Amino acid sequence: MIRMAPNTKQIDGKAPAKKASDISWLARLTHPLVFFGAALAVYEGTVGTALLVGKHSDATVITLCLSMAVVIVAVTVTVAILVFKKPQNLMLMQQHTIEKQLEDTTRIRRATALIMTTPKPRSGADFLRLTEQVEAILSGSDV
Nearest 5 degrees, angle CA 29-CA 102-CA 108? Predict the structure, then answer.
């Protein structure tokens, strides 16, 4: 008997697919803009907690509030400069692989179309010829 966690469904004996929201928080932090936002939230939370919990003089409260404002402005300006000057550095690392993935998908579609349109092989030699054609398409050497 297969036991599953509550609130999960199993269809056709397969485990349920992961949702996009199941991505770990650490994986999301690899994106530069998310990292900037998280770092800013941690800093502001720390200074805000110090302001709320601690007993500070008026000068210290003003200094902490000004430092929070300066950091927010500095991070916003830094991110704005990076967005306009070096936008390629703000992309996910996998962006450069999209072209290769598209080529792979095109080859897979061509191989599938060949298999679907070719009549059923009548002999072992026909089957081997079809297999070689599919391998050539998938390897990209048929061009």
Answer: 125
What is the tens place of the pLDDT at every residue in 75-113? 888 888 877 787 666 665 555 667 777 888 889 999 999
Question: Among 69, 25, 76, which Cα is nearest to 47's?
Answer: 69
Q: Which residue has the tokens 């679907």?
A: 116
- Region of 7 (left: φ > 0; alpha: ψ -120 to 50; beta: rest) is left
Distance in angstroms (rounded) separating the CA atoms of residues 15 and 6: 13
The residues that bridge with 14 in the sheet, in sequence order, are 11
Q: In sequence order, what DSSP letters do the residues of 15-61 get, joined into one string?
A: PPPPPGGGS-HHHHTTSHHHHHHHHHHHHHHHHHHHHHHS---HHHH
Is the distance from CB of 75 to CB of 36 less than 8 angstroms? yes
**What are the tens digits of pLDDT across the range 107-131?**
999 999 988 998 888 888 989 999 9
Would you call 133 exposed, middle or buried from its count of C-beta atoms within 10 A (0-12, 13-18, 19+)? middle
